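DM from R.C. (forwarded with permission)

"hey, sorry to bug you on a friday — could you get me a structure for this? deadline for the figure draft is monday and I only need the backbone to look sensible"
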Amino acid sequence: MTQTRTRFAPSPSGFLHLGNARTALFAFLFAKHTGGRFILRIEDTDLERIVAGSEVGILQDLKWLKLEWDEGPDRGGPLGPYRCSERMHIYEAQLKRIQKETRVYRCFCSPDQLDQDRKLLSSQKKVIKYVGRCLNLSEAQATEKAKTTPYVWRMHVPEGAPVAIEDIVRGHVEMQRDVLGDFVIFRSTGVPVFLFQNAIDDALQEMTHVIRGEDHLSNTFRQVLIYDALKLKVPTFSHLPMIGAEDGGKLSKRLGSLSIKELREEGFLPQGITNYLALLGWSPGDTAVTGEKFNLEELGKAFDLNRVHKGRALFDFQKLRFLNQQHLHDLNLDQLLELAPCKLLDWSAEWKSAIELVKHDAATVNDLYKVESFLNKPSFDQNEAAQKILKTDNARKALEMGISEFKTKVHQNPAVEISLKESIQSVGKAIGLKGKDLFFPFRVAITGVEAGPELIPLAKILGAPEVQSRLEKAFEYSKA
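My reply, with the result:
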């Protein structure tokens, strides 16, 4: 039985964004599910699009996501090279082969001519394709003209039966040949175009399955013609649904260009990201039975391309946060501290307790750092809600009495959390306050905001002198 071979073939033209990461993930998972091999190939022949440092960044992101490849530019393998710029001799040899096997011809049409052709066809409401201007040049004419005029190589698409593929996701898909037109396979610069290079590499590197976004579907029919002309084995295709916004429309520029690097900087975990991306277009089955939380190993066991759906996958940022939170909760306190080391030197001794206080509410690593705002002294000047709470007679009375009670009780019992709790209770009974009217003045006095972590455990972390200082500061502010 032939071993499954899948690949991820990014262009080093920028960061690894969500769509490409999902493609890599699906190819990786299918290889793992079938006991196959996952190959990384860098498509770096389009020099104008290459961004310095991009290749290194892509490899780092893939490794961070734990999408480890079996063959690639840094690891080698039996069917390399794995960087397309190092395979130019292969493409040139295949160009010579295809020139012998089918009708391939030089095209001398300038960009302006081609643009005029497209506009004319569009105005006539005809299919936009190459008009065949250079198709019937004789070999002698083409050879002579090539001495002075730049040209590309085009592959002729003769009349015939529709070009068809059997796609695992989309089923039987076909396209009429007269829609395809004669297409470019080599540029005037001597560099192959993507669809030619890509098809040659997939065939010669023995890819059994090509998994990619549906935006590549139109290329696939032309690639099938290349495979057929060169008598190369056609891989099995799976064209994944595009990722859209929650409302079914296009992703916003922010989400559409969201990179793995940005998500990492925002505090997302690799296991949270891969879990969510796997569910963008794939279903594990009855989620009432399976649930939706999976680690990478579990995904590899469960993944099946037959469960990838055709419809657009809707990106839900809140669901990403929710799943990330589930994985964050799996980490013990030491692991959390490793991910979120203390940045406030004055609070380094209390940092472990502070993280433990907020870990259950955190969805990302960055959320853990929100506790910093509660460790720092509060400011009321820019917070209208806090001002509204403190600038009341009840708040002033509660704080004044609370400070007195707290001083007495903390002197009797140094356990600040007990002293603060009993002080608030005493104030409530003495002046007839309860609920928000009683607790909000103390919460705002200590934290500066109406919502946040539990107040009594936070007070224990802050310590009695700090709690007293904040209560006194808030009381003075309430009188001003």
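R.C.: lifesaver. The domain at 377-479 is CATH 1.10.10.350 (Arc Repressor Mutant, subunit A).
me: no worries. The first strand starts at residue 5 and ends at 8.
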